């Protein structure tokens, strides 16, 4: 069993409208835009990152906004709900705040003894706020989302699978242990993670596979401390039979990818070097940052990329 993985690193999803995406996460959820850059493989498209002050691993939601993308079709073989951690006794405040800001799909409930508020994003994305006791992670705050109820980072992500068996075994190999099981959902967790410690698996044998599009999660990333730890994980996965990509430099972390038995794309990402490698922490996300291989496209991109702050 591996011990290098320390919880979630980031979750990357698809969107259609970059401006609406930016407004939703910065104005309505109160996260900080910690980086605006472009998709390495399709530089005409933004890659937007939102999280806490520094973009700490375990807090970062990222998006590829493709202007012409169709809405995704939800199903199995994908991430279902991305859940954020908030302080106890704050869901009333959140319900009021989200309702005031026109967020739809609000529904209260509880999972594994924790109260939660489910809601949908602008592309039909599935999100939840989970009341968490003693989450000491420092939040980013805004004029409308105060410290008292601000998001602390990820709580968990759920996987919707037709058959959970092989993916559960993979997660256990990655260091997760089964915490609880209820109502057809298995919760796996890390004992000494970064706070973004849980993966919930929902088994849906009669549901077809999802179709990637706006509102879909493209991949889910798990955190390791550094490149040496990442190489240890890569070797262990390959020795177990997984086909893992070479290490890829993503400017703000190094990444490897592999497809899970249930169809979900997993990434293992390093905590280093971080989002402040090319911007002062006080100014994260303010300027368009480009990978060096795409810097020659700057004049075109600055003219054609959708303004994030426009009305």
TrEMBL record:
One of its GO terms (molecular function) is dioxygenase activity. Transmembrane segments: none annotated. InterPro entries: Extradiol_RC_dioxygenase, Glyas_Bleomycin-R_OHBP_Dase, Glyas_Fos-R_dOase_dom, VOC_core. SUPFAM superfamilies: Glyoxalase/Bleomycin resistance protein/Dihydroxybiphenyl dioxygenase. PROSITE patterns: VOC. The keyword Cell division does not apply. The keyword Oxidoreductase applies. Residues 7-132, 153-271 form the VOC domain. This is Dioxygenase. It comes from Devosia riboflavina. The lineage of its organism: Bacteria, Pseudomonadati, Pseudomonadota, Alphaproteobacteria, Hyphomicrobiales.
């Amino acid at each position: 069993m591996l011990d290098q993985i320390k919880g979630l690193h980031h979750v990357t999803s698809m969107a259609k409208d970059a401006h609406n995406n930016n407004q939703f996460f910065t104005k309505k959820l109160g996260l900080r835009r910690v980086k605006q850059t472009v998709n390495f493989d399709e530089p005409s498209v933004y890659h937007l990152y939102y999280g806490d002050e520094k973009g700490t691993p375990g807090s970062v939601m990222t998006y590829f906004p493709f202007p012409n993308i169709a809405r995704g079709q939800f199903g199995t073989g994908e991430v279902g709900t991305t859940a954020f951690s908030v302080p106890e006794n704050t869901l009333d405040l959140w319900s009021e705040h989200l309702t005031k800001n026109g967020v739809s799909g609000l529904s209260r409930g509880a999972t594994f003894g924790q109260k939660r508020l489910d809601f949908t994003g602008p592309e039909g994305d599935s999100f939840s706020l989970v009341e968490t006791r003693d989450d000491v992670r420092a939040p980013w705050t805004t004029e409308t989302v105060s410290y008292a109820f601000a998001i602390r980072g990820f709580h968990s992500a759920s996987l919707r699978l037709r058959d959970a068996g092989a993916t559960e075994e993979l997660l256990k190999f990655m260091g997760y242990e089964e915490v609880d099981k209820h109502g057809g959902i298995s919760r796996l967790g890390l004992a000494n993670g970064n706070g973004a410690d849980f993966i919930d698996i929902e088994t849906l044998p009669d549901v077809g596979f999802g179709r990637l599009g706006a509102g879909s999660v493209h991949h889910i990333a798990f955190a390791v401390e550094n490149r040496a730890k990442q190489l240890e994980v890569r070797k262990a996965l390959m020795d177990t039979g997984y086909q893992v990509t070479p290490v890829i430099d993503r400017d703000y972390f190094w990444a490897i990818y592999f497809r899970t038995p249930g169809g979900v794309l997993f990434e293992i990402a390093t905590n280093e070097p971080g989002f402040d490698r090319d911007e002062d922490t006080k100014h994260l996300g303010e300027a368009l940052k480009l990978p060096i291989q795409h810097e020659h496209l700057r004049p075109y991109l600055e003219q054609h990329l959708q303004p994030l702050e426009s009305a």
